[in-house]
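User: Can you recover a sequence for this backbone? Please restate the input before giving your answer.

Assistant: Of course. Working from this structure:
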């Protein structure tokens, strides 16, 4: 009964397939049995032949007497064959997967395994599969081991630093602590720039549970677009994002009350400019990291900024620093305060008056400088358009520059004072010497005439200056021995076209052609301020020498460092050697105001020395028609003050005069500083 049940059970298994067709007949079964007797051979006919050889004893009775056992054996062997086939197929599938993986890290292993797989696929017998199975398993093990060790080496050698950094980031939280930036004061102690407490809000996106809801809650308090906050709170592959830099302390406190997941707070500072636009160009502004970008914020950044600190602490599960788990802390060192020469009250008046004049005369721009000729301290300086460092989003192009420092221009007739001083120093003429001045003179194919149409006239040297005659000053320069050479040398000696050394970033130098390139027309043009370029501040320094007994000072803003009591010193230079020329040229400049083109600069009760200018504007090698640069420069020679003032308007669509603007500014200064006539 047992053998019968085994026969029935075994008979349920499908027979071995050859040539793609199942063999189910009894004769085929016998053929299978015969082939199986030659186990391990691929040629059963040869095996049968050898089995009938006389060298071996045939035992047909044993087969006959054991027919049932033979059938059982056939069934078992058939089953084994099928199992072997299935095992081979499974091995082939496994090998294919291994080969794919190993191919990434080593072609040799892949070829070895692939070769084994090919051998298995080409096998026609289950017995052969069984004989190769240990080798296949060995190859599989070797491939897996190779992949493992290669991956382990890659992680330990190549990626170790990366994963160490990631682990460190996960364990710690680090911040750069911002020092308290120094305060900027005007000359009277008024705060022009200061740092105030603020709060920086940051987040760990990995801890944020509902980015949309939290973003909306933040927007409700801080303002702004909720989608922007949502993008930050949803950022992947990071544990730190800034939500709001330097937020208002009270606003940040409201956000903190919301107890939002993954949102944290850092004590910080923010730069404020209490005077807004007034003096904004001079002061400059800082970026969000507290670094000076323009103006004195940039010039004295090293002094003002201090030294940032650092803070590194162990992070808890909630992302917050663990109390007592600080790994490293370096305190920030606050920056130093500075006091500058600007008087914010005078600065405000100057800015307003220049803006008003520019509007009245439809000028494209305007500027002004007020400087103490005895000390070099700049009391006020401005140029249109103005800039508010509190709101850089609305700043116009070039508004962050003080153009009297950073831009040179052809000054026109205010430069005649340079030529006249040179003539007086050289002793070539006195104020009362006369000179025939035709209406027009010609040289090198060019004509020179005065700004105001006139007939041929004879002028005294004083009249040449107060009537601002281009022809007269040109011919006067030529009266000197080696006139053009002397003029060139004195321009150099007076440091015109050279940087003043002012403590402000981006100072421009002037331009002057080399003497060897001068033609007659060049010398004439330079004598009345065309063909030469200077900055307004360079002119102020020169006029200041006339008010300071021939000594030029270095224009500057920094007056002191209050915390240390340090008072900087600045270079001076005696540039007018012939002191006798100083009162003479000063007297001639007084005549310009009393009898000449500068009458509108007169201030009751005070002597005013100054010079007007109506300059053509060079563009592309030619002078534009119908637009002019207007300016006036002067000082109060017989007074208790050495203030020098420059006023200019740019691209004015008509000839005109700005001496009245000078008058208003100096009158304000007289009242504010109690300047007394002498």
């Amino acid at each position: 009964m047992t053998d019968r049940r085994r026969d029935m059970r075994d008979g349920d298994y499908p027979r071995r397939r050859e040539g793609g067709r199942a063999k189910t007949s009894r004769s085929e079964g016998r053929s299978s049995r015969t082939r199986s007797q030659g186990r391990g051979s691929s040629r059963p006919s040869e095996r049968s032949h050898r089995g009938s050889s006389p060298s071996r004893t045939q035992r047909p009775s044993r087969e006959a007497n054991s027919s049932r056992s033979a059938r059982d054996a056939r069934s078992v062997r058939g089953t084994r064959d099928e199992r072997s086939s299935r095992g081979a197929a499974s091995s082939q599938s496994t090998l294919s997967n291994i080969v794919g993986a190993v191919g990434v890290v080593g072609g040799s292993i892949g070829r070895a395994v692939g070769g084994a797989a090919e051998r298995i696929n080409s096998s026609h017998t289950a017995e052969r599969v069984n004989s190769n199975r240990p080798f296949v398993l060995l190859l599989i093990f070797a491939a897996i081991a190779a992949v493992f060790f290669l991956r382990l080496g890659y992680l330990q050698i190549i990626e170790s630093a990366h994963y160490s950094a990631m682990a460190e980031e996960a364990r710690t939280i680090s911040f750069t602590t911002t020092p308290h930036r120094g305060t900027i004061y005007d000359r009277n102690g008024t705060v022009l720039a200061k740092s105030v407490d603020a709060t920086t809000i940051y987040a760990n996106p990995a801890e944020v549970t509902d980015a949309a809801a939290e973003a909306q809650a933040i927007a409700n308090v801080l303002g702004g677009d909720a989608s922007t906050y949502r993008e930050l709170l949803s950022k992947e592959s990071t544990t730190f994002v800034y939500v709001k830099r330097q937020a208002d302390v009270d606003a940040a406190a409201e956000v903190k009350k919301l107890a939002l997941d993954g949102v944290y707070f850092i004590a910080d500072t923010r730069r404020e400019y209490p005077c807004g636009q007034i003096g904004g160009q001079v002061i400059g502004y800082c970026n969000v990291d507290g670094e000076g970008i323009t103006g004195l914020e940039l010039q004295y950044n090293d002094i003002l900024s201090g030294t940032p600190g650092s803070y590194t602490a162990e992070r808890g599960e909630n992302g917050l620093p663990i109390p007592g788990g600080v790994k490293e802390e370096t305190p920030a060192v606050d920056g130093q305060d500075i006091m500058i020469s600007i008087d914010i009250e005078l600065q405000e008046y100057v800015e307003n008056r220049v803006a008003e004049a520019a509007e009245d005369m439809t000028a494209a721009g305007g500027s002004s400088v007020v400087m103490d000729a005895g000390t070099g301290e700049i009391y006020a300086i401005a140029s249109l358009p103005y800039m508010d460092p509190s709101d850089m989003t609305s700043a116009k192009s070039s508004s962050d520059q003080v153009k009297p420092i950073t831009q040179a221009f052809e000054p026109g007739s205010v430069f005649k004072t340079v030529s006249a001083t040179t003539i007086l120093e050289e002793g070539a003429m006195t104020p009362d010497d006369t000179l025939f001045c035709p209406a027009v003179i010609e040289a090198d194919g060019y004509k020179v005439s005065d700004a105001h149409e006139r007939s041929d006239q004879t002028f005294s040297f004083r009249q040449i200056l107060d009537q601002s005659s281009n022809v007269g000053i040109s011919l006067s320069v030529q009266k000197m021995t080696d006139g053009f050479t002397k003029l060139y040398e004195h321009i150099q000696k007076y440091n015109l076209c050279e940087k003043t050394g002012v403590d402000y970033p981006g100072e421009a130098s002037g331009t002057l052609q080399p003497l060897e390139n001068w033609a007659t027309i060049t010398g004439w043009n330079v004598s009345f301020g065309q063909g030469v370029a200077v900055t307004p501040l360079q002119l102020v320094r020169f006029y200041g020498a006339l008010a300071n007994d021939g000594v030029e000072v270095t224009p500057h803003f920094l007056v002191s460092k209050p915390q240390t009591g340090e008072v900087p010193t600045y270079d001076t230079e005696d540039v007018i050697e012939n002191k006798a020329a100083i009162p003479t040229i000063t007297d001639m400049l007084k005549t310009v105001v009393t009898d000449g083109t500068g009458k509108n600069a007169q201030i009751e009760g005070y002597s005013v020395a100054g010079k007007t200018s109506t300059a053509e504007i060079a563009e592309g090698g030619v002078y534009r028609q119908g637009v002019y640069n207007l300016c006036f420069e002067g000082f109060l020679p017989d007074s208790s003050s050495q203030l020098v003032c420059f006023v200019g308007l740019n691209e004015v669509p008509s000839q005109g005069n700005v001496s009245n603007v000078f008058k208003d500014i100096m009158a304000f200064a007289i009242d504010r500083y109690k300047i007394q006539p002498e």
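That completes the design. The longest strand covers residues 622-635.
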